[in-house]
Amino acid sequence: MTQDEWRKTIVAEARSWIGTAYHGQASAKGAGCDCVGLVRGVLRGIGGVEPEKVPPYTGDWGDVTGTETVLEAARRHLVEIPPAQAQAGDVVAFRVRRGRIARHCGILTGDGRFIHAWEASPVCEVALGDWWRRRIVAAFAFPFELPRGRTAASRLASDRAPETSGGQRSLPRPAAEGQAPSGGARKADRPSRTFARPAGGQPPAGGGAAVRQEGS
Predict the structure, then answer these.
(1) DSSP class per residue in 139-184
(2) Which residue, 101, 128, 163, 196, could crosslink 205 as a Cys pair with Cβ 3.0–4.6 Å?
(3) Residue span of the structural domain in which 13 resides
């Protein structure tokens, strides 16, 4: 697998999460996730393993202690790169409000767009407009060499192995948090549109392209 194929695999996996409802602390495709849960789910989907056990957190996480939780976790499990070098398949982290911690992230898809999970909106692919670009504080690449010493190519190949003579198929082991529950959210049950959050340092309606200019 080439680096270009690797990036296309990441983008395809991220797009398979589009329409998943927003749910804080969750990471289950088709059922619910938040921005961090989306990145965790994509890592699992491309052949990786759950990075680490995520402790429970509230809506104001990080604001009280000032700890850069998202950036620190990303540095433990991804490869930090200069934001100017970020390409399709890379993760970008945002500092939505000046003076606050970086608490939002998304995955670039190329052509000036990215996929993210934003509160009150299902996972969606939107334009990386000026509003978002001015708030990027870090970027990370998914490691081509995945945990346990296996390359992305070899792990994906083994996950898709054909049936053996004994009728057994090699399949990826499902992650406990990465599976939608039985009878989970159907496509028809998912929100069909996005909603704007209140103004005041918030992104444009639906988390999409900028509709106004604000100081970064």
Answers:
(1) EEE--SEEGGGEEHHHHHHHHTPPP-TTS----PPPPGGGSPPTT-
(2) 196
(3) 3-56+68-145
By DSSP bridging, strand 91-94 and strand 136-141 are antiparallel
Residue 34 falls inside a structural domain: yes
- The answer as to whether 93 is a domain residue is yes
- Number of structural domains (the chain) is 1
Predicted pLDDT at 206: 56
Structure confidence at residue 149 (pLDDT): 45
Task: Say which range, 24-28, 99-103, 136-140, 141-145, has the weakest mean pLDDT.
Answer: 99-103
Between the CA atoms of 203, 194, 72 and 96, what dihedral angle is there, to the nearest 10 degrees? 10
- Checking if the pLDDT of 52 tops 90, the result is no
pLDDT at 184: 42
User: Environment class of residue 81 by beta-carbon count within 10 Å: exposed (0-12), middle (13-18) or buried (19+)?
Assistant: middle
Asked if residue 184 is part of any domain, the answer here is: no
User: Residue 91 belongs to a domain with what CATH number?
Assistant: 3.90.1720.10
Q: Quote the CA–CA distance of 16 and 39 in Å, as a whole number.
A: 12
C-beta of residue 148 within 8 angstroms of C-beta of residue 49 = yes
